[in-house]
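User: two proteins, same treatment. go.

Assistant:
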Amino acid sequence: SSMASAASTPNALNEKTKELIALALGVAAHCDGCIGFHVKALHRLNTTEEELTEALGMAIWPRPEEPPIL
């Protein structure tokens, strides 16, 4: 579809950034297949451990028991 094409084509956001967002959304949705798919793509894109850790941190924060710090 045109929406999928627009989402996957690098433009203002590069491919790695889009994959990090997609991974975070997969984690938030508890979608194992999505997580695996996007982790493989991020590995192909040479994502660093620091990048991955930061994205995953955003995916699980804020937790209901922990109010956000603004």
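Protein 2:
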Amino acid sequence: RRHTRCSRDWSSDVCSSDLVLKMMKFPDNTVRMLVEGLWRIRLMGFDSHTPYLRAKIEVLKDLLEESLDF
């Protein structure tokens, strides 16, 4: 399953899109998840709120600095 996470108050428009690898539920109602980050994304806006949040996104490319080291 893919999952997108942002700050809780949605104040940051840069998020990560993740793949849930494993989810464990514990007797005290806590949940632990192992996720793999797939992409950095920017939220462009929300399309709908029901039945699920659905958003338009832009995939952000990583910026690599060129080095003179070989």
